[in-house]
Amino acid sequence: MNSDNSSSMLNEYRFFDTNQHVRETAYGLYREVKHLPLYCPHGHVDPALFSENLPFKNPTELFIKPDHYVFRLLYSQGISLERLGIHPLDGAASETDDKQIWKLFAEHFYLFSGTPTGVWFQYELAEVFGIRKKLNANTAEEIWNDLEAKLHTKKFLPRTLFEKFNIAVLSTTDAATDSLEHHVKIRESNWKGKVIPTFRPDGVVKLSGNSWKENIRLLGHRCGFEITSYQSFIRAIENRREYFKSLGAVATDHDIFIPYTERISDANADWLLQKALNGTIVPNESATFESHMMMEFARMSTEDGLTMQIHPGSFRNHNLMLFDRFGPDKGADIPVRTEFTVNLRNLLNSYGNDPKFTLVVFTLDETTYSRELAPLAGHYPAMKLGPAWWFHDSIEGMLRYRHMVTETASIYNTAGFNDDTRAFLSIPARHDLSRRIDATYLAGLVEKNIIDREDASRMIYELTNGLVKRTYKL
Fold first, then answer.
1. For 55-156, which CATH class?
2. What phi and psi, each to the nearest 5 degrees, are found at residue 254?
């Protein structure tokens, strides 16, 4: 296909190696898995999309406002969040004309050249909406009109797109205190799409968090009893895990700054909880409680079978001015150096040899791939490596990941791919990119005679469907 015309269809050979032999082998591997179902075991899409199944309001509400990848880069170039329609917490004015926000985005879309966001967006326009023109200031209004017209048709309702994308299962990420009302509505409807919750207890485990008292009150309300002790806290956590499982949950998810794990006595855990209830807890004491609860969550997973996922190493809300003005999740999260070998030793020695336990570890610190994570996953039966995450969920990031972990851990101690996105329409784009990059990596091994073509076919299937289905028991 032509690759020199900006209005042409996407090049079918995109992202593959420039070496012709590797390129052709990669293309053949990709074609074997191109149309396989999408398994999405970790993400942040709002389940209300599917319980309500209402038309998307407009392109800005769909593509820009939910996507921190978009406004973090625009903000870095001096474009304020107010101009992107993000409302300050103090009620100050922000742009309310969504079409103007779209035009601003289009004028600056060139900033995303060479980034995964740019790649995903081009896929969405071309493959989801059939729009072949390149987004810029000159095409902004035409593309807006085309998108808006299509978004108000039945073909572009959330459930219809879910089926069009061939999604086998989509996991959302839900607070331990969430009512899960949208999951209940989905289950009670006649729709066959499989949307399941994921148990995320961060809000009730971080004892020094600003909203902890409200969260713990709400947790008690969900369970039907007041939480006044560590014993009642553990009972509430186990109660909620059971409820999540009843609605199809297969995993838990834990956002921790440092993956330190150490069990303390129940008496000490109760002492810390009482300090939190009294409002006298300090951050280092909260961290001690978190490290203990990582051990408890692993223990619970051996009993109820939920796959445990940990996502350490993100310095959340690094930009205090932005956090104070707009709140969390505004594109100011930054990776930090992370250590796993020592920090996870207690957990892995307690549960890492248990066949009933699965731990999926993600990282934003690439230096740990070959030094720590691949050797750990290559030894402990319970541990699997999550895919290249967040800042590394990119063309080069995925290739670095494969090169740094495969020789030590093999692909069979990894967890396959997950899209980890709030942007629903980017899901097929992310999976397509992953399949192309994995095909490229495997084709390189074939051309070097490290594996043969039969091995490569088996491995591309595993990376696409097999590993994720086994890791998450799907």
1. mainly alpha
2. -135, 120
For the chain, the C-alpha Rg in angstroms (whole number) is 23
C-beta of residue 225 within 8 angstroms of C-beta of residue 280 = no
Superfamily of domain 20-54+159-471: Metal-dependent hydrolases (3.20.20.140)
Residue 458, pLDDT above cutoff 80: yes
Q: Specify the pLDDT at position 468.
A: 98
C-beta separation of 222 from 238 below 8 A:
no
Provide long-range contacts, Cβ within 8 A and 24+ apart, for 387-390: 387/362, 387/414, 387/415, 387/416, 387/417, 387/418, 387/434, 389/311, 389/362, 389/363, 389/364, 389/420, 390/314, 390/335, 390/364, 390/420
- Among 67, 84, 52, 63, smallest CA distance to 421 is for 67
User: Apex CA 124: angle with CA 128 and CA 101, to 5°?
Assistant: 120
DSSP assignments along 68-106, one per residue = HHHHHHHHHTT--TGGGTPPPTT-------HHHHHHHHH
For the cut 50, the answer to whether the pLDDT of residue 3 exceeds it is no
* Residue whose C-alpha is closest to residue 196's, from 50, 339, 327, 70: 50
User: Same fold for the domain at 20-54+159-471 and the one at 55-156?
Assistant: no
Helix (H, G, I), strand (E, B) or coil at 308: strand
**C-beta of residue 420 within 8 angstroms of C-beta of residue 388:** no
Over residues 199-228, the pLDDT tens digits come to 999 999 999 998 999 999 999 999 999 999
pLDDT at 8 over 90: no
Q: Is 24 exposed, middle or buried (0-12, 13-18, 19+ CB in 10 A)?
A: middle
- DSSP letters spanning 346-412: HHHHHHTT-TT--EEE--S-TTHIIIIIHHHHTT-TTEEEPPS-GGG-SHHHHHHHHHHHHHHH-GG
Q: How many CA atoms lie within 13 A of 36 on its CB side?
A: 21
C-alpha span between 21 and 27 (Å, rounded): 10
Contact 170/426 with Cβ under 8 angstroms? no
Could you report the per-residue pLDDT of 136-151, keeping only the tens digit for each?
999 999 999 999 999 9
| pLDDT > 70? residue 2 | no
Give the confidence band of 325 by pLDDT, cuts at 50, 70, 90.
very high
Mean pLDDT of 25-52: 98
CA distance 204 to 219: 8
Pick from 393, 335, 403, 342: which is nearest to 369 by CA?
Answer: 403
Q: Reply yes or no on whether the pLDDT at 6 is more than 80.
A: no
Q: Alpha-carbon distance 260 to 97, whole Å? A: 46
Could you state, in order of their start, the residue ranges of all structural domains in the chain?
20-54+159-471, 55-156
Query: What's the pTM value of the predicted model, to 2 decimals?
Result: 0.96
What per-residue confidence (pLDDT) applies to 68?
87
